[in-house]
Amino acid sequence: xxxxxxxxxxxxxxxxxxxxxVFRAWHSMPDDFRDDDGWPTNAVHGxxxxxxxLLERERxxxxxxxxxxxxxxxxxxxxxxxxxxxxxxxxxxxxRQFAWCKALCEALGLVTLAHADFEADDLIGSAAHxxxxxxxxxxxxxxxxxLSQLLQADDEQYDFGKGQRWGHAGVKARHGVRAxxxxxxxxLAGDAVDNIPGVTxxxxxxxxxxxxxxxxxxxxxxxxxxxxxxxxxxxxxMAARLREQREQTLLWRRLTTVAVDAPLPEGxxxxxxxDAAELTALADWIGxxxxxxxxxxxxxSL
Length: 302
What we know:
Blueprint: E1 12-17, H1 18-28, H2 42-58, E2 62-66, H3 75-79, H4 92-107, E3 111-113, H5 120-132, E4 137-141, E5 156-159, E6 164-167, H6 171-175, H7 182-189, H8 204-214, H9 217-222, H10 235-244, H11 246-256, H12 276-286, H13 290-301
Parallel strand pairs: 1-2, 1-4, 2-3, 4-5
Antiparallel strand pairs: 5-6
Helix pairs in contact: 1-2, 1-4, 2-4, 2-13, 4-12, 7-8, 7-11, 12-13
């Protein structure tokens, strides 16, 4: 299906959360794929398979692939040093493959995004925000619930692995809160994946009930006196915790809010023709088979 769907008059920008798909490939592909130096290339093989399927299925004209190069150094660590501290650093065998995946995207004529101070989510958010001003809608290719906060009007999120797509209106059915409430929701309930504790005693269900009633975290914090009167088990303790942990809760929200002001390259992320010589060199080094080489050549020639 073409990215310019029937009834969709706005051009579409595809924004890909690369790290998610590189990690998935790393965990799911056997590590008997090796490069000429004997290093594993399983994540590159898996990522190439995903990327080619995406390009063949969606045929995007405008696309950017966002990579995480800020692990341990982005602005959230400066605010809260324990951010993502529960994650082990990527082993050298995987770090090396991230570089190959990025090189593969560039050889295919795709714009890549990476920054030392901003995560992939922020680069995706910033690109969606910048291009919205130029009349584009975005299709965010990721299963990450944090990114649902970016969806507006006719934007979509696409969980490629499960073949599921949803728009702004579909966020509540998936996560229990509206798109614009996701950052507040994660600030209240916490996000174990990113090592964000949330408010003591407030879980996902309570957070959804509080936001359904108050609308926003700011309104909730202004009207804490009303919380004990809600029909919610433990409401009195929740009000007390919200008072005690007000400053931390606002900090959690700064961590859970996707930035839309990250630096971006010039241009509108239009696909360019790929570099055939570079693709051949990469294919030789990584050990791609004939079928993959043909698909890469087709994708590079547009």
